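Review form for a predicted model. The reviewer records the input and the model, then writes brief findings.
Reviewer: anonymous (R2)
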Amino acid sequence: MIGIRKTSLTTSAMYDTSSSQLISTLMSIRGGEAKFELEATLDSKYINSAIGYFNNLRVPAAVLMSIVMKEMYQLQSSPSSSMRKWDKEHKVDKSKRWRTLRYTYLLLMILSFCLEVHTIFVATQVLTQLATAQSVVPHEIDLGDKDTVGGLFKMRPTKEVHQSMIEFLIKNFEFEYSTVRLHFVTGLLSFTVAQALRVRYALRKYKELSLSAMCCLLCVATGMLTYTNANTITYGGYLGLLKRQLFLSYEFLTTRIKAGPMSAVTAILACLSLTYAILGMISPEFDYFEVDAEVEEVKSNWWSK
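Model under review:
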């Protein structure tokens, strides 16, 4: 029995040794193809994870966009009859601060809507680019510097193995990754701040309650921003993400100006949006709807006489 066991152990050891030698021989004959297959498998895994990441961002962005679209013009309608008398008694109807609050709410909601729409658009487009990146080009193929495998800033075949999905995205889809992250978070923050202004206006008759609700919503907004800065994966916080995305956007537009006029038009419209927003904040010229109604009523009475 002991002899049989020794024979079986010896045979097993010889089999393991021959198997490892055979694998080494095959790898040397195939030129390290097994290592490439491992890298290709990892990249495919990261591509599938990236598809899930962008899909998961599209859903909450679409939900938030629908809410914003529904509630965008709530503070632009006439107040209820019960509040109209109180507004006149406390001069809310002609207060410049309250008018500024109402129109700031509208601008924040418009900003949130635009950012979430752009998040959905970029996330949808990058899914197509990730689908084209599913086919991995072997490293043995000699590609030139201009040869690419998909992606906005183009995915290039490389022998480097990515350590995580985020590293894979930054190397190949950094513009899309930074854009959807920044726009989704900024749109959510704009929406939260807008709701804080809305609750202050809706409960203006009860000062302490309105201030309490407004501070609660602002606390949520600052808490989200604090968490983003403390647990950011890349770019060192919200400001770092903002700077990087603005730089990538500038690079994206400037490199495509010769391809057509739309890049220049986009840059001009963005500058005009910022310019008019700053001018409006410096010297706001708001007309309250009841003032216009009273003027029209006086004019109609005068003409009737």
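Findings: Residues 1-40, 135-159 have pLDDT under 50 and may be disordered.
Further findings: The chain has ten helices and no strands.
Recommendation: see findings above.
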